[in-house]
Amino acid sequence: QVRLVESGGGLVQAGGSLRLSCAASGIIFSIYTMAWYRQAPGKQRELVATITSGGSTNSVDSVKGRFTISRDNVKNTVYLQMNSLKPEDTAVYYCKAEEVRIGPVRLSDYWGQGTQVTVSS
């Protein structure tokens, strides 16, 4: 059974920091590109940051310089370090194991249940 379990969300003042964690089980974690998405009230879910199996990272412009994604393939965990938080970062944050395609083989993608991040002004 595949599980992605996020933790680390909460309430923080603007300018503060949080570190989100997502612990994966039931998948070969090291071969997956992992991602963090977020969904604010009344808005569509958006991609925040990704990290490939090789450790290459990317993030959306709105969080560049403030958020850092990382992974630990021994602990099967992906992290999102969030600094200089702003009220507009308020959202439910989800981790995702992105679909893997190796030749004709396709491994499905998986979502976590989400963790709430609230940034007060």
Question: How would you portray this structure in words?
Answer:
The chain has 121 residues and is mainly beta. 0% of the residues lie in helices and 54% in strands. It is built from no helices and 13 strands. The strands form 3 sheets. Strands 2, 4, 5, 6, 9, 12 and 13 form a 7-stranded mixed β-sheet that branches. It is elongated, with a radius of gyration of 14 Å. The relative contact order is 0.31. The mean pLDDT is 97.
Instruction: Tell me the β content.
Output: over 45%
Rg from Cα: 14 Å
C-alpha termini separation: 40 Å
Unreliable spans are: none
Helix count from the secondary structure assignment: 0
What is the β-strand count?
A: 13
Shape type: elongated
- Class computed from helices, strands and strand pairing: mainly beta
DSSP helix fraction: under 10%
**Elements, N to C (H/E):** EEEEEEEEEEEEE
Mean pLDDT: 97
The biggest beta sheet, please? 7 strands, mixed
